[in-house]
Each structure stands twice: as C-alpha cells, then as structure tokens.
Structure prediction request, 127 residues.
Amino acid sequence: MTKLKKQILWAVIIILSASGYLFLNTLTGFYIPCLFHLITHLYCPGCGATRMVIALLKLNFAQAFFYNPLLFILILLYFPLKLLELITKKSIIKNKNFLGIVLGVIILFGIIRNIPGFEFLTPIEMR
Prediction:
C-alpha cells in the first residue's frame, strides 16, 4: 500500500470514528473521562481535548478554544506548518528541536493549568 493510500485510509478511519463518537455523544451526552483527572484531581495537558474535538465538529470554535486552548492553538499551527513543508520540502514538524520545544510547552501548560489563579486554563463551558 502506498503512503498516500495509507494516509487516506487513516483519514477515513479518523473521520468515521469522530462521526460515530459525535453521534453517540449527541444521543447520550457520553464523554470519555480523563483517567489522570479522575485519579489525581489535576488537569493533564490533554484534559478537555475530547470535548474540544466535539465542539470543532460542531463548528463551535470559541467553545473548542475554552475546552483546551493549547491543543486548539497547536492544531491551528499544524496546518500552516504542513503547507510550508509542502512548499519548501523541509519538515519543521519533524525537527527534533521543534518537537522538544512543543513538548516543553505541553508540559509547562499541564503544570500551569493546575496552579491557583490559572483556572481559566482548565476545560470550561463558555460563560
């Protein structure tokens, strides 16, 4: 199987899975809970990601941002970087320094969102 066919297959699998989850969520209100949060009562860097994706699927971008602002921004940055990669034939996304910086930002976000005074970084419904 060629690389393009594999990418298309993965895209179809992701779209079908997301659509199925959105359908299940719409019918039942079911969300997959964060095990890290259930055990520690702290928010991991990914807390709110599932609700963010559902908000994105519903085209509610403002609510998606409030569920997980870092992941929302990283998704927005991914597309221009991927376009730049296609134009220049150089991958910024696969650069070890870039990945190290992104990982550092993710870890820092996970720490900061649990510090009192930074409650605005926790997954919240829009007011």
